[in-house]
Amino acid sequence: MTPLEEPGDPAAGAPSPEAPAPTAAAAAPAGDESSAHVTVLELGARRIHVVGTAHVSRHSVAEVEAIIERLHPDTVCVELCPLRYASLSSGGRAQALDLAALVRRGDAPFVLASLVLQGYQRRLGRKLGVVPGAELLAAANKALEVGAELVLADRDVRATLRRVWHNLPWRSRVMVGLGLVATLVDTQEVSEADVEQLKKREHVKDVMAELARLVPGLKAPLIDERDRYLMSAIEDAPGHRVVAVVGAGHVAGMIQAQGERADRAALSAIPSRRLAAELRRWLLPALCAGAVALALARGVPVVSLLVPWLVATAAAAFVVTAYARPKSGSLLAATLLAPLAALVPPIDPTVVVGSVEARLRPFDEADRQRLADDTTSFRGLRGNPVSRVLLVAVLARLGARVGAFVGAILLWIRAL
């Protein structure tokens, strides 16, 4: 197997910035290279064949293999980052997973969200008899088979999830969270014909417009930025004949982004917290302080304020975190930490409680192998030691915030 190159790596023979700009973008002409889902882009003497797929489509698997076999391209680019490629190649197993390290980095919410989304796709794929992302893995395998260079052209999935979260207003964050929960209980039947509809350009356009309307702030980092990133990486890929395999939802945006020379490093950077968001973090502590000041001015004893507040804040955190069935040490940490986190928002229960749970709950190779299947349901999510650590970490943060809200309301009730 040839080594996998990073997108745009100079060692991979990427063209220089002086390369000619694209001169045309059109649907693939009739003939051997034609397909209803292929767009051919002319970049000087180079031809880039963009194949729009659905990630749970058996037809897409056969289509990309046939196209690569016919064209024998110099390079095949796929909509995968190294992390997602490793996951697909291993059948979804969490190999060499340093759970404690990712919890310490504060990545637990993003990894858990990614696992839940993968679980939903896997459940959908079972109904249709195909592994989600099978067409991307098939393209990668076929590239190696025909001697083409393989380029993993997508942005790191962790950077995408972090930028998505940063870009969402709080209402949209709630909607996304509820949407992730809904994927675990979704029973809607989807046919193979429904999946094939997803590759039609008019349908894709409607879906993208509806996504932007329902969840403001989601489409830009999840779709638009990756359109630019993918197109830039593909344009920098070596060779005169290139096949790029991407989800159908990216094709239109990629065509618009051709020739932009996007800064992929900037698109992968984690944005700093906005001032407004930083101020919002301190809103509940400020409200608590205001309630205490008002109560003291009215002669209310401090003890009669603080004791109920401590109990309410800790109890709310206890109840929420307990849903994940954590180890007793983790539950104790979540309960005791909640009042402190309510007063000092930079303290993150996700990191502290998640680290305790990761230390107390070991996992083995069998747990890693089951992870992809277990994250298709609530029961499996809570039953697998790997996903349970992540769930405990996330619910500890949610519990602390619920506790802070409950405590603030209680303080104002007693102050008034």
Task: Please describe what this structure looks like.
The chain is an alpha/beta fold and 416 residues long. It folds into two domains: 10-91 and 131-271, no CATH class; 277-415, no CATH class. 62% of the residues lie in helices and 8% in strands. It contains 20 helices and six strands. A six-stranded mixed β-sheet has the order 1-2-3-6-4-5, sandwiched between helices. A hairpin with a 2-residue loop joins strand 2 (38-43) and strand 3. The radius of gyration is 25 Å and the shape is elongated. The protein starts with 23 loop residues before the first strand and ends with a helix. The model is unreliable at 1-34 (pLDDT under 50).
Labels describing this entry:
single chain; 416 residues; alpha/beta; 2 domains; 6-stranded mixed β-sheet; 6 strands; elongated; disordered N terminus
